[in-house]
């Protein structure tokens, strides 16, 4: 048989891979393995075939090919990439303990591996999947330590911030704030930047610094007017302004939330907006908002306070009979 024939067959597979025709490339590389099983290029072909299967999310055959390549004791540099890809397949197959072992050994053997940031990133999520949060956090920390400018660093800072925030210990909120602030300096992906802006404002709000939180929320709403967190951000901004007695400024923040019938916190937005109108002595508006809250959310925790606000709004418009009826509902419910 021709010496160059297996090389040509490998070339077909490699060219198809470069064209991102992974199915055809895998088929061509399969012919290499069956047609020239002893050719020197076969192990490399199996590696590339495994990569093709992984791109196709066919993780089981991908793992088989990569394991065969590693069994052939390839060049150490190529073996590192194959080990990393094998770990990705194990994660795809939800074999997280095996992936943890593969990635841990890889990073132990080659701490300065060229894709170490990606390896630590995948390792962290594998630990998360097995509910080993301290180990996951350690992996995220290692990533930002060894590769502070990695494209993955911003998301890691977000994860670290969430870890501190969800610890249940209010003393860790400053650490969460530091993590979110650091992540924002590097965030390029829009969804990560939006999340960092919101969580940073949230922890500032929780630390009773609403005036600082409104700055970040304004940035979020400006940069992501159609973002997935826009309504949450709008409500939180309104809440921060409300706490500073800025009734007029708070009302436009609550309005988008109220306009969305199924929005999270719509009931609270209605209550806050009604209260703003009441504090501004805009009685028809406070009447309308309290009435809508009572109609749409009859089990709202502060329903009697809302009824009282409705009664007070009616009374200030000299709708005294209606006001009495509403006040009676309050006294009846509380007695």
Characteristic key phrases:
mainly alpha; 335 residues
Q: Determine the structural class based on helices, strands and strand pairing.
A: mainly alpha
- What is the distance, rounded to the nearest whole angstrom, between the alpha carbons of the first and last residues? 98 Å
State which percent range the strand residues make up.
under 5%
Instruction: Categorize the overall geometry.
Output: elongated
Helix content: over 70%
**Rg, nearest Å:** 30 Å
Number of helices: 18
Instruction: Give a count of the beta strands, DSSP E runs of length 2 or more.
Output: 0
The biggest sheet, with number of strands, parallel, antiparallel or mixed sense and barrel status, is: none
What is the chain-wise order of helices and strands? HHHHHHHHHHHHHHHHHH
- Low confidence ranges: none
Indicate the mean pLDDT. Answer: 96
What do these coordinates show?
The chain has 335 residues and is mainly alpha-helical. Helix 17 (303-315) packs antiparallel against helix 18. The longest helix is centred in the first third of the chain and has 17 residues, at 76-92. The mean pLDDT is 96. It has helices at 5-18, 22-35, 42-55, 59-71, 76-92, 96-109, 116-129, 133-146, 153-165, 173-184, 190-206, 210-223, 230-243, 247-259, 266-279, 283-296, 303-315, 320-334.
Briefly characterize the structure.
Helix content is about 75%, strand content about 0%. It is built from 18 helices and no strands.
């Amino acid at each position: 048989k021709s010496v160059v024939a297996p090389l040509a067959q490998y070339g077909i597979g490699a060219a198809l891979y470069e064209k991102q025709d992974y199915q055809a490339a895998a088929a061509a590389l399969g012919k290499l393995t069956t047609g020239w099983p002893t050719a020197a290029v076969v192990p490399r072909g199996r590696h590339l075939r495994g990569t093709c299967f992984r791109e196709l999310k066919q993780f089981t055959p991908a793992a088989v090919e990569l394991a065969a390549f590693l069994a052939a004791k390839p060049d150490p540099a190529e073996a590192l990439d194959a080990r990393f890809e094998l770990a990705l397949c194990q994660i795809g197959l939800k074999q997280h303990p095996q992936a943890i072992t593969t990635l841990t050994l890889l990073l132990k053997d080659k701490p300065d591996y060229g894709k170490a940031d990606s390896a630590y990133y995948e390792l962290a999520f594998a630990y998360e999947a097995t509910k080993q949060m301290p180990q996951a956090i350690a992996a995220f920390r290692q990533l930002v330590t060894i590769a502070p400018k990695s494209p993955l660093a911003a998301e890691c800072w977000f994860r670290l911030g969430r870890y501190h925030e969800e610890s249940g210990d209010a003393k860790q909120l400053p650490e969460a704030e530091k993590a979110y602030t650091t992540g924002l300096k590097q965030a390029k992906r829009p969804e990560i930047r939006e999340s960092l802006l919101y969580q940073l404002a949230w922890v500032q709000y929780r630390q009773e610094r609403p005036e600082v939180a409104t700055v970040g929320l304004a940035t979020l709403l400006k940069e992501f007017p159609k973002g997935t967190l826009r309504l949450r951000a709008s409500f939180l901004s309104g809440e921060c302004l409300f706490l500073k007695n800025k009734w007029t400024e708070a009302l436009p923040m609550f309005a988008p939330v109220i306009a969305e019938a199924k929005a999270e916190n719509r009931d609270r937005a209605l209550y806050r907006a009604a209260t703003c109108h009441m504090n501004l002595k805009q009685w028809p508006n406070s009447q309308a908002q309290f009435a809508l809250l009572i109609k749409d959310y009859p089990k709202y925790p502060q329903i009697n306070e809302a009824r009282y606000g409705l009664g007070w709004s009616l009374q200030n418009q000299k709708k005294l009979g209606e006001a009495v009826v509403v006040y009676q509902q309050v006294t009846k419910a509380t007695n």
